[in-house]
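Researcher: Sit down with what I've pasted below and flag anything odd:
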Amino acid sequence: MTHTKILIGQIVLSLLLVLAAIWGATQWAAHALGYQAALGAPWFFSDGLPVYKPWRLFQWWYAYEAYAPEVFSQAGLIAASGGFMATLAAIAGSVLRARHSKFVTTYGSARWAKPVDVQKAGLQIRSGVMLGLYRNRYLRHDGPEHVLAFAPTRSGKGVGLVVPTLLEWRGGAIIHDIKGENWSLTSRWRSTFTRCIRFDPTDMTTPRFNPLMEVRRGEHEVRDVQNIADILVDPEGSLERRNHWDRTAHALLTGSILHVLYAEEDKTLAGVARLLSDPARSSEDVLQAMLATNHVGTNAAPDAHPVVAQVARELLNKSDNERSGVLSTAMSFLSLYRDPVIARATGASDWRIEDLVDPERPVSLYLVVPPSDISRTKPLIRLILNQVGRRLTEALPAQDAKRTPLLMMLDEFPALGRLDFFETTLAFMAGYGVRAFLIAQSLNQIDKAYGVNNSILDNCHVRVTFATNDERTAKRISDALGTATEQRAQRNYAGHRLAPWLSHVMVSRQETSRPLMTPGEVMQLPASSEIVMVSGAPPVKAQKLRYYMDANFTTRVGEAENSERADSEAPSSSEWNGCVPDICEDLVPDDGPERSRRASSGDREIQRTVSDANDASRTAEPDNDASVSDDADDNSGDETIDPSALRRAFGLDLADDDTLPGL
């Protein structure tokens, strides 16, 4: 509503109030005088009562005041009340115009949230993730949307957001706990209703998790294995496009993992590394063994796994140099699992992904990694998060009604590198009962990991920010808060300088635009303040929460007394257990049957058949002293065994001194 409309309404309302008071006084006087005929003819009748014109009161007052002075005195007071009410209306209109001038929206309508706005945004509820304080009341968010918090280090993210949320959230949770502080503070209370697991791959006693045991045998096995290979070939999360070596290494890892699951005793990533770098066998021997293994057939009709066979044949068809490059690339992705501590942590599964959303007793999984091993163990943590995200977004909650909500509390999540799957599934992850609470030091940290055109902020409904130290982050926060319109008054004075009063004062108002908070003001935000931005609602200027200053949280703080340890006696339960088929001679390819059998047995000696062929070759050789007649029969040389043909037939290596000596 413009100022002109408010002024017109103010005038009209004042006139109506005056008219109503006079008319009311006229009707009251007529009633007090008994509607006598001397009052004149009424204007009209309403429900049998005569209604007179408003101004007749003044005519009667002039003519009959001497006969009824008290009646007209009271009628005059009633009429005068209209002027009093009109004055109040004029004052109210002036105040309204003055207040309206403060909320002009010519250049923008940004403003801070009021209590009613906070209530409408659904932030003052009794459960959910903790966001802060507003007028000494908790700010919580319990919707399916994701939350993003960005603030510099040592600014209170942990004590104000992470710990209070973990001491409030009652569902399953995955906590990226770099220093183990969250485990020490929240595991005791969470262990009362969830199964708390502290997974530290650098600890020999940690509960184990084997990523390969999450591969479902059957129609999903290739997809699950390829998802594992996707993370293995991009351990740092910085690979934007795969080159030739990455693609071929991905194929080799896919086939090798499937072969290990079907044919090897050690069904782990360490077992895959051991298969590809077996000191007792060459790479060709391993590939020949993969071709000759009965993966999916029966004893009567043996058959190798088609993916394994295709990968092995593809590698065998390559030159030695290229095959060596592919193998070395694949092994570089498995170097982490050569560590015996990591190999033990991934040697079996003491917990499964389905346990995280178990309705009766969900899991609180703390991914604890010492700061000194963050970079080294990043591929394993990325692999676990990738598997959890993919597995829990396959079936809708309506199809899996027993699932409990899961919170992914990822502190310093940009340190994990770019998780392509996580970025894409963040848009629909909430529909599967999985919500994310992401914490970063700045928006630039997110841009560095996911690129400038990332969709992390787009998919986070709630954003919490503290005072930042980065100018670009402060600029983006200022832009996100919006632009407000201000009115500035300019006064001009006219008159003599020595006059006792000014003869003329002119005030002009000008509307200008201003950010709700400038970048400098964002960087200078008080240490006790924070900003909560909710989509579709004005931003909230709130106060930080400190769990150690709140008795509701201090009574829950503590570390779980009986934390789970690795159960070395119990093997992980999986449908892959006991699946170790033998090599079938019928599947041995024609280009290397003896090599395949030697690869399966690990025997590096020359086969007896090769020795027999050697003896035959020596017997067939002509005597060096014998003369050869020019008339000798040309067909006589057919009985002599050509050593080069023999080498091609049996795949012999001339570099070995024991191979057919004398040739």
The chain has four domains: 3-102, 129-207+350-494+502-554, 211-342, 605-663. The first helix runs from residue 3 to 32.
